[in-house]
């Protein structure tokens, strides 16, 4: 294995200018067109680093987590190499991923990036009917995205032919090992052609990953993450908050935050042009005055948008990172990250837009569950604390609005400018209590403020993210794929095992069902992972008795897990859980 010996810009501390864009990385017109259509303006650090060597056919080890743009980092070169290859019946590339969700997600990404090329991609995972997969494989696909267990199944059935494979990608390799797929990976890789190109991506690089890389990769380019704090420094007067929210509720969450915070001027950051355009039309549709700025605008359009923002005609500016880079804005009260930015530098750059010149500012980040790892990384590298908060409820919003009306009424009373309404009030108070009249007037004012907009409660996702985890949900089917021989959770007090995380105190949970109810370790891990959002790597040893099961979990999460599993059935059986006092 070889490491770049030139001063190696890390994936997090990129020094090169990124404005040269995707073309300078060697990507060709077809893919550049697709990326343009997707609204991508510049490569993320991992894309900058990984795309050129992958295009050149090199093996590669990349340390990158979800949210950094790693899927495009390996998919774009794969697609370009596929475009230059001769057509073949058997699959050209195999992408191995730990879970069914990721298999679907990655296959969708391959489809999206390969749209112009008309790529045939298939996701193959456990827990789903095998027949449709057999039929699709027989018909012929160019890229297979598979979980290891199901991939092996197809290999044994000879429905998945590896002999013409030219590229193998191992995505989230550490998770695959944590889920006990080490032997499966070896078995699969051994059956692939020696001439293949192999890339391995992993959020962490424990020795077991290094050993897989040593066995299966040749002269690999190693993309480092330099664990140094980001120099740019976060302005101390910026108050940083994060809200955990599912993708489906992001617009609602943003609107709620805007309504509660009433920012005087806010810069909202999105990753792509498309997101910028979609968000401004949604916001304006809901009565906000927002405008967007991105690399797709010409100078005159940019000038107009900026003039409107500076004059206060619009108070929400929605921007991509590239577009915001050149903006001359002296101060904004709020920076809102619609997505967690793909690198700590981008985060620091974004939030540096507020809290300038000694004034205080707010930086608010919407975090999808799968992006929590990225946020932890940003906190660590920027040495700053991002406080996770709960989204205001509809009741909070209503209280805030009423408070606003109350304040406005107080101002009118102080200014004593309501003479022309006195006559109608006098008439009303002849028949009604004056306090009732005032309350009815407030109701009217409240209604005119909110119109007929119906506020909906945004489901709360509790912060379940352990530091070392990048995924919060693990598919139950995938956990069933866990090979019996694997001992992924051997170390009682060290969840995260290979990740090298610190030892944490563990507590044993006693489940009221066991072997006689047909319960196996996979069911328990699946239930905890799915219901409590705890990654499998955080779960300690499991003991299955005839009528009970014992599972070790981190002590500080034990009560949350019990609560989350309160109403869950395991294998169709209602199971009660208590702390085991041994
Ligand atoms: P990933 O880390 O591959 O899961 O990507 C995270 C998200 O970033 C996905 O929604 C991608 O569509 C998006 N993305 C990836 N690369 C870029 C880029 N260069 N510019 C903007 N968005 C990107």
The largest β sheet comes out as: 8 strands, parallel
Class of secondary structure makeup: alpha/beta
What is the name of the CATH class of the largest domain?
Alpha Beta
> Mind telling me the CATH superfamily name of the largest domain?
P-loop containing nucleotide triphosphate hydrolases
Estimate the helix proportion, in percent.
25-40%
Instruction: List the ligand species.
Output: adenosine monophosphate
Average pLDDT taken over every residue = 82
What count of helical segments does DSSP give?
Answer: 21
- The first-to-last residue Cα distance is 48 Å
- How much of the residues is beta strand, in percent? 15-25%
Overall, the morphology is globular
List low-confidence stretches: 1-20, 464-502
**Order of strands in the sheet with most strands:** 1-8-2-7-6-3-5-4
Radius of gyration: 27 Å
The name CATH uses for the topology of the largest domain is: Rossmann fold
Description of the molecule:
With 582 residues, the protein is of the alpha/beta class. The chain has 4 domains: 2-227, Rossmann fold; 238-392, P-loop containing nucleotide triphosphate hydrolases (Rossmann fold, 3-Layer(aba) Sandwich), CATH 3.40.50.300; 395-450, no CATH class; 488-579, RRM (RNA recognition motif) domain (Alpha-Beta Plaits, 2-Layer Sandwich), CATH 3.30.70.330. It contains 21 helices and 21 strands. The strands form 4 sheets. Strands 1-8-2-7-6-3-5-4 form an 8-stranded parallel sheet, sandwiched between helices. Helix 5 links the parallel strand 4 and strand 5. Helix 2 (45-55) runs parallel beside helix 3. It is globular, with a radius of gyration of 27 Å. It binds adenosine monophosphate (AMP).
């Amino acid at each position: 294995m070889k490491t770049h010996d030139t001063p190696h810009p890390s994936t997090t501390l990129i020094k090169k200018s990124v404005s040269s864009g995707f073309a300078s990385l060697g990507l060709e017109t077809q893919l550049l067109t697709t990326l343009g259509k997707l609204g991508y303006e510049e490569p993320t650090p991992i894309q900058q680093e990984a795309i050129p060597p992958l295009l050149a056919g090199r093996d590669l080890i990349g340390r990158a987590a979800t949210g950094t743009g790693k899927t495009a980092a390996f998919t774009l070169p794969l697609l370009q190499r596929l475009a230059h290859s001769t057509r073949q019946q058997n699959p050209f590339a195999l992408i191995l991923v730990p879970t069914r969700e990721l298999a679907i997600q990655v296959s969708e990404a391959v489809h999206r990036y390969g749209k112009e090329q008309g790529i045939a991609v298939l996701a193959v995972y456990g827990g789903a009917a095998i027949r449709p997969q057999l039929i699709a494989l027989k018909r012929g696909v160019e890229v297979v995205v598979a979980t290891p267990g199901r991939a092996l199944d197809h290999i044994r059935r000879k429905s998945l032919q590896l002999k013409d494979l030219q590229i193998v990608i191992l995505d989230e390799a550490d998770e695959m090992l944590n889920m006990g797929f080490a032997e499966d990976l070896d078995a699969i890789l051994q059956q692939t052609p020696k001439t293949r190109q192999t890339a391995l991506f992993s959020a962490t690089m424990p020795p077991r990953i290094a050993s897989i890389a040593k066995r299966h990769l040749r002269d690999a380019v190693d993309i480092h993450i330099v664990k140094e704090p980001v120099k740019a420094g976060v302005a101390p007067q910026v108050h940083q908050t994060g809200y955990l929210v599912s993708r489906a509720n992001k617009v609602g969450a943003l609107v709620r935050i805007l309504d509660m915070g009433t920012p005087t001027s806010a810069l909202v950051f999105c990753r792509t042009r498309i997101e910028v355009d979609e968000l401004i039309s949604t916001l304006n549709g809901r009565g906000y005055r927002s405008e967007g700025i991105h690399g797709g605008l010409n100078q005159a359009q940019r000038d107009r948008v900026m003039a409107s923002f500076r004059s206060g005609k619009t108070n929400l500016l929605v921007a991509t990172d590239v577009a915001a880079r050149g903006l001359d804005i002296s101060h904004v009260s709020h920076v809102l990250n619609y997505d967690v930015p793909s690198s700590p530098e981008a985060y620091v750059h974004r939030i540096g837009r507020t809290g300038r010149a000694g004034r205080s500012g707010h930086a608010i980040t919407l975090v999808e569950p799968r992006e929590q790892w990225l946020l932890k990384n940003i906190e660590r590298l920027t040495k700053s604390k991002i406080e996770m908060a709960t989204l205001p409820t509809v009741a909070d919003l209503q209280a805030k609005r009423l408070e606003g009306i109350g304040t406005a009424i107080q101002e009118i009373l102080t200014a004593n400018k309501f003479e022309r309404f006195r006559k109608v009030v006098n008439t009303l108070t002849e028949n009604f209590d004056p306090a009732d009249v005032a309350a009815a007037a407030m109701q009217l004012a409240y209604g005119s403020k909110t119109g007929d907009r119906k506020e909906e409660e945004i489901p709360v996702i509790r912060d379940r993210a352990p530091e070392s985890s990048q995924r919060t949900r693990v598919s139950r089917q995938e956990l069933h794929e866990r090979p019996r021989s694997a001992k992924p959770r051997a170390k009682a007090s060290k969840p995260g095992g290979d990740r090298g995380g610190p030892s944490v105190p563990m507590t044993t949970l006693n489940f009221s069902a066991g072997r006689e109810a047909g319960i196996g370790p996979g069911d328990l891990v699946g239930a905890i992972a799915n219901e409590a959002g705890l990654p499998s790597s955080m779960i300690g040893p499991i003991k299955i008795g005839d009528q009970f099961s014992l599972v070790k979990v981190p002590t500080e999460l034990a009560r949350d897990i019990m609560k989350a599993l309160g109403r869950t059935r395991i294998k169709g059986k209602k199971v009660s859980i208590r702390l085991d006092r041994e």
